[in-house]
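Intended use. Records like the one below are meant for learning the mapping from a protein sequence to its folded structure. Do not use them to infer anything beyond what is encoded.
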Amino acid sequence: MNGEKTILVAGTWDTKDDELSYLSEVIRGQGGQVLSMDVSVLGEPKLPTDVSKHDVAEAAGSSIQRAIDSGDENTAMQIMGAGSARLALDLWRAGRIHGVIVLGGTMGTDLALDLCAALPLGVPKYVVSTVAFSPLLPPERIPADLQMILWAGGLYGLNDICKASLSQAAGAVLGAARAVEAPSFERPMVGMTSFGKTVLRYMVTLKPELEKRGFDVAVFHATGMGGRAFESLAGEGAFAAVMDFAPQEVSNHLFGGLSAGEGRMTHAGHAGVPQLIAPGCYDLVDFVGWQSAPEQLRGRECHAHNRLLTSAMLDARERQRVAQEMCNKLARATAPVTVFLPRAGCNEWDRAGGDLHDAEGLRAYCDEMRRGVPENAQLQELDCHINDAEFTNAVLAQFDAWIKEGVIVR
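Structure written out for the chain above:
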């Protein structure tokens, strides 16, 4: 029933009571229910909330008085952020909420990112923020399925402009709670990374083949946020195995591109998830195409993928460093690892005769991988390109062997 969906409405009810009450009214007017949470520190709401600020502080192992006594608003809000995150997860696990909406300026948005990050993929999360889509928000703190809308003209008090944003947000989170099909994981899941069919094509063959074997397949676009989502789910043990064939976010992190964070290429290993690894696009560093290239990438051969994304080539020495970093990360894995090394190239642009072909750079990378592949990983060298049938055949052969050996469970 529509009326059975309950939305957690969180914010500083001491200063944003009118706006949060308006959000709640819209949700109730659309047939939803509201559970209110106060994350303020100094003041009191006009009416008691379902979850008080004292409840929130205590959930963080602290108290409102300690937050006040800290004398620092940043410290105080981090206490409230930690407490609100724990309580939101508890409420969801208890079946008491089906989605969440948080409202705030920079302080409230900082807290909102913590709260929303605590909730699993598939739980509708909406943030109404004065800094939505701002470079103030680090990608590594943004949950994979977070939705945001700019709180235009709403820094202080209600008006017709900000009501347009607030009402949209209220309707969106309630609609999402009604419509969402959260992951059921009824079939074992394989997590795969890629970069788009014009560059890396193995997924076109692998996805249907894995589905024939009884697996679901999730392919992540490895351009920063996609890699973060992949790593988050891998760390939760959501995958029976991973096919991390586009780890160029490791290169991005090393050389100032679109990073998925320091933890890229580590979470599956830490969680004991079997890993099939290949260096798709390892030789490229991605940056925002409509901005000037970062200083450290200027003067290089580049490929403009579109108006949003441009990729710069790494030289031979830098590729060796990428190989070393990948090997160091894989050495920490607690489950089997197989590394496939396609000696004829690792993206469609670097084939012999291609725009970004660099035989010396590819050779330097391959040599470093041979030297550095850790003892816990098996290296398979392939006389083919990553987009050739020989590559997918080798991957499927190893995958099938791991099923037979019980390494991959279905």
